[in-house]
Amino acid sequence: MNQFKTINSQSAYREWSSQVAELPIFQRSWWMDAVCEAENWTAVLVYDSTEEVRAAIALPIGSKWGLKTRIQALMTPFSGPYFSLPPSNERTEIKAKTLYWEIMEQLISALPVVQIEAFHLNPEMEDWLPFHWKGYRQTTKYTFRMKMGDANKIFEQFRGNIRTHIRKAEQILKVEVSNDIESLHKVHVASFDRKNNKTPISLDYLKGIYNSCRQNSATQSWVAKDAAGKIVAGIMCVHDADTAYILVSGTDIRQGAHGAIQLLYWEAIQYYSQRVKVLDFEGSMLPGVAPLFLGFGGVMTQYSRVFKCSNRWLEAGLRVMGKWG
Hints:
Largest sheet: 10 strands, mixed
Order of helices and strands: EHHEEEEEHEHEHHEHHEEEHEHEH
CATH class of the largest domain: Alpha Beta
Number of strands: 14
Strand order of the largest sheet: 4-5-7-14-8-13-12-11-10-9
Radius of gyration: 21 Å
Structural class: alpha+beta
CATH topology of the largest domain: Aminopeptidase
Shape: globular
Helix content: 25-40%
Number of helices: 11
Strand content: 25-35%
């Protein structure tokens, strides 16, 4: 039996995560501070006998209806966990899988007890079986990802109508790098307004995340302007060493911004083509959005939403309110 120990410590997680270059942006302690505030998240680390971290996860903590919760943070697509097997030249696939299960069992068992929890695993975490053994359930969700490389070759892979939209938009719109988060938020709100919906992202919340990302050199934003200089569309991307994410976007079609979002996505693709390995369109499973990402050459990529409720009556009530599942 392998010897592991677990620590539930935000400070230990901060120290460890600052030294892990490959850690995804959404698992950085400064990201958690931005989306949850420092007092509203917790972290668990699993150490082996050599004091190396083999698994770690940082998750929000909160309360709702007087109950303790662990719910996926807003604007945070994935919550981990980080996982790393000890090096070995002799480990078989069976032994590797068994060791993975053992480490994940340690991690999940050390999570603080709450009444309601639901969070997203990294797409690379294909095996959610240890969560099942601990009473979690799962639903499969999708994002769309594309490999970066030669931008011209990527462009040729776009669906024909997307290339047409981009070429037409280039004739009437001007793309600029922008730090104007208020204008980006306005066009983001406009995108929701035309569908009679309300965005969950407030301007202050978006500004907080953007400022944290700027301080950590982890963001890039663009806007599209019409001939009069009016901003008609915008996108905000965040990135780590391997992956860029189109995290926020918006278009005000009332301003004649047809093709603007395709043009901005193309701008992001060109910018990141030689900077990261993967671009993640970050969702969406909506019928009007998924085909757009597919048209850009995005590949459907599965990830798991795992969830758990302390008792079936509470879960039944949440389902009736449309807050569960």
